[in-house]
Amino acid sequence: MTTPTTNPGPAARTARSATTAPAAKGSRALTRLRTLGGSRLQRACLLLLVVFVLVALLAPWLAPQDPTFGRLGDTLLGPSAEHWLGTDQGGHDTFSALIAGTRTSLAGPLAVVLFSTLLGTAVGLATAWRGGWIDTVTGRVLDVVFAFPALLLAILAVALFGKGMTAPVLAMAIAYMPYTARLVRGLAVQEKARPYIAAYQVQGHSALFVTVRRMLPNIAPTLLAQSTVNFGYALLDLAALSFLGLGVQPPTPDWGAMINQGQAAVLQGQPLSAIAPAVAVVLVVVAFNVVGENLGDRLAGRDS
């Protein structure tokens, strides 16, 4: 179906003017994203996340020692000029392991959030656009997935496919997908009722073009806020999995595994090998929650 090319009436002019709405809404969303400075707590959390990301990227060059190499004669040493945070029961430098563990501890949640966001966005847009029985059946399936905690699915994946990070990451991505799908569906249903969507349909644009090129950019800021919060929860779940010995396996450094291995050091009077990674987990999770909640609060007041 195509629009008339001669003597456009009022309805056609209204349809063309409605197509400018996404650009205006997108510019307003970008303006809000540029003003994320917020309070001092918000700025501090953003700065903290930037620092952790830089540490993860530069970990091989920042670690003063090889985190996988331990000396039996240097077990459970206290802080010193050579070992800033002491050593663990295997003689590994805790500070070096903490830095190297930043990469593995952030890479897993990043993969979970990426996979769950991509899959959830696709499901949410498709169900919102098609509606009907497809929306109903998909909603029931998502309800079933909601019933299984992410950590439980990750443990089940480990039992089926063995220890490591691949199976837990994929299982947790499936567990986190319904949160994104529900959010995207709700936002997409609201966007679908706006005049610019009907205008694009009148012009003969495909459903894929309208949903991906026009509808998705308008809901992307809110989706970003939800993904930020999901990152913190995914990090916590994967750290718990490694703490249980089902995630990252030694000698690869990981914060959850370091906490598990540091329990013996705590009983022997050298708690830093367990406290340091635990503090790192808490700081990153809190920072992501603060940033995500702040972003969500700001976007909640966006113009209609």
Written description of the protein model:
The protein has 304 residues and is an all-alpha fold. It has a single domain, classed as Orthogonal Bundle (MetI-like fold), CATH 1.10.3720. Helices cover 73% and strands 0% of the residues. The protein has 13 helices and no strands. It is elongated. The N terminus is likely disordered.
Keywords for this entry:
304 residues; MetI-like fold; disordered N terminus; elongated; mainly alpha
In a few lines, what is going on in this structure?
With 304 residues, the protein is an all-alpha fold. It is 73% helix and 0% strand.
List the helices and strands and how they pair.
Blueprint: H1 10-18, H2 21-34, H3 40-57, H4 59-62, H5 94-130, H6 132-146, H7 150-161, H8 166-192, H9 195-202, H10 207-243, H11 255-261, H12 263-267, H13 272-300
Helix pairs in contact: 1-9, 2-10, 3-5, 3-13, 5-6, 5-8, 5-10, 6-8, 7-8, 7-10, 8-10, 10-11, 10-13, 11-13
What is the name of the CATH architecture? Orthogonal Bundle
Low-confidence stretches: 1-26
Separation of termini? 29 Å
Q: What is the molecular shape?
A: elongated
When the domains are counted, the total is 1
What share of the residues lie within helices?
A: over 70%
Q: Give the number of helices.
A: 13
Q: What proportion strand?
A: under 5%
CATH topology: MetI-like fold
How much is the radius of gyration in Å? 24 Å
Mind telling me the CATH class?
Mainly Alpha
